Amino acid sequence: MTDSLRIVLSGSIPASVSVPVSGVHQVTVHLAFGTRNELDSLKPLFKEQHARAREQLVASLTGMTSRQAAARRGRWNKDKADLRWRGQLLDSLDALVTAGLCKTLEERGWNHPWNLLPGPAIAPAGRTCGSPGSGWPEEISVWLPADLVHTVRAACWHTSKEGRDALEKWHQRYPKARPNQPLRTRCDADALAEYRELCAKINHRGDVWRDAVASGIGIVRTTLDPATGTG
Questions:
Q1: pTM metric for this prediction
Q2: Most buried pick, 40, 57, 87, 227, via CB within 10 A?
Q3: DSSP character for 116?
Q4: Which residues pair with 91 in a beta bridge?
């Protein structure tokens, strides 16, 4: 962590590193019980990382003219985004989930440009087709880079087309079915099994957000000592 910050503060990040910046978007993540407590336990780490980054920035400004210092601060504001994407600056819950989301997209092979989304796919809230939509008693709200949020929406939409189309046909065959109501599914066991198989082919944004939180926590566990904030 410390070495990463020193490298950045000694000069801007190489031009080969590209971090799109086009605003942020608020995302609500529904989580398993106990996750909020685990995230709350990391607040001292966030505070320590924020303070350390600030201290090293101030130290790097020593001896500079006002114009040089202003330029350095400007570069630093941009470089912080890259460090957060890499998981090397975890100074807030937003930063932790951002780093986790970058890792999640890379692991899924989704970190590449996607085709434009049709109107129905742009809706920011609501349950997606085939989503169980329950079972997550906790929630958090985080601000994530708009580029990453768009990638998640596009990837989920385009990779789920086959399952979504098949699920629509299933509902046409069983218009009275209630597959998410265990006590009155209104369809036989074979139809219910088919429904669940089709649902498994659909990628849901909520699952991606949860994976991002889990990945962010994993980054803390594997690269940082939560007690001291050092790697």
A1: 0.82
A2: 87
A3: P
A4: none
Q: Cα(181)–Cα(116) distance, rounded to whole angstroms?
A: 35
Length of the chain equals 231
Euclidean distance between CA atoms 57 and 70, whole angstroms = 12
Q: Are 4 and 83 in contact (CB under 8 A)?
A: yes
pLDDT at 8: 45
Q: What is the pLDDT of residues 157-212, one digit of tens each?
A: 999 999 999 999 999 999 999 998 888 889 999 999 999 999 999 999 999 999 99
**Cα pseudo-dihedral 13, 17, 22, 28, rounded to 10:** -100
- Helix ranges, 87-136 (H): 93-108
Residue type, 168: E
Is 29 strand, coil or helix? strand
Q: What secondary structure letter does DSSP report for 16?
A: T
Give the pair of three-digit tokens for residue 153.
Answer: 């929406």
User: What does the block give as tokens for 67?
Assistant: 């114009």
3-state secondary structure at position 100: helix
Token couple for 86: 């890499």
Q: b or e along 38-56 (b: 16 or more beta carbons within 10 Å of the residue's beta carbon)?
A: ebeebeebbebbbebbeeb
Residue type, 42: L
CA dihedral sign, ordered 114, 117, 123, 127: negative
Residue 158 zone, left/alpha/beta (φ > 0; ψ -120 to 50; rest): alpha
CB 142 within 8 A of CB 26: yes
Largest CA distance in the chain: 77
Higher pLDDT, 30 or 56: 30
CA angle, corner 79, sides to 74 and 83, nearest 5?
155
